[in-house]
Amino acid sequence: MHPADPAEAESYRILRSRLDLSALPPLSRAVTERVIHATADFDYVTDLVCDEAALASGLAGLRRGAPAVADATAVAAALGGYQVICKADDSLAARLARTANLSLSAAAVRLAFSAAGPGAVWLVGSAPDALSEILAREVEPALVIGVPVGFVGAAEAKDALRRSGLPALSNVSEKGGPAVAAAAFEALLRIAAAVPDDPHPPSRRLEDADG
């Protein structure tokens, strides 16, 4: 949706009438509101693990045009035309997944490693083992948005991400998915697209844009 879309503005108005996140740091607030807006799930206010410094690192990466690396086509398709590296549709990824006993998402992440280089924003919204692939390599990310969904290994993979020391956005529970990963990314992208010397803080700019 376009930021000026009346339905989106009304959605944010309803969200803010039910939940006051003004005490959160600006980037954490923007991401949390965007995820709740995308999912209509207020549990994310306590489920998301936001680190303001990590989000600022991701924002800086987006402002300098860092590539986004997506673990799945559903994540890549939701990023609104931003430059995305996604190897999930590559025939080599399917072959690697079979031979190495990986999910397609994990194979896509492994293949994307050399193409991404340091300073990329990595998004994992599909399979937990895609996060394991990131942690197994010397990835130097601007940010890892790690919110894979599932009952098998998802919460554990996200906990490992938090313990890794990498700049990360994650959530505690088994919930998550491509829509959550894309929403968090979009929140930061909207702020990155704003005028850098705007005197208003990011949360105020986002609130103005969303009505």
Walk me through what this model shows.
A 6-stranded mixed sheet has the order 1-6-5-4-2-3, with helices on both faces. It has 11 helices and 6 strands. Helix 2 (26-39) crosses helix 10 and helix 8 packs parallel to helix 9. By secondary structure, the chain is an alpha/beta fold. The chain is globular.
Strand content: 5-15%
| Overall strand count | 6
Our measurement of the CA-to-CA distance between the termini, rounded to an integer number of angstroms, reads 13 Å
Low-confidence stretches: 197-211
Structural class: alpha/beta
Could you please say which CATH topology applies here?
Rossmann fold
Strand order of the largest sheet: 1-6-5-4-2-3
What would the average pLDDT be, to the nearest integer?
89
* Tally of discrete structural domains: 1
Q: Give the count of helical stretches.
A: 11
Largest sheet: 6 strands, mixed
CATH class call: Alpha Beta
Give a short summary of the structure:
The protein is an alpha/beta fold.
Element layout with pairings:
Blueprint: H1 6-18, H2 26-39, H3 44-47, E1 48-49, H4 52-63, E2 68-70, H5 73-77, E3 84-85, H6 91-100, H7 104-116, E4 121-124, H8 128-135, E5 143-146, H9 154-164, E6 168-171, H10 178-192, H11 202-210
Parallel strand pairs: 2-3, 2-4, 4-5, 5-6
Antiparallel strand pairs: 1-6
Summarize this structure as a short list of keywords or feature phrases.
six-stranded mixed sheet, 11 helices, 211 residues, 6 strands, Rossmann fold, alpha/beta
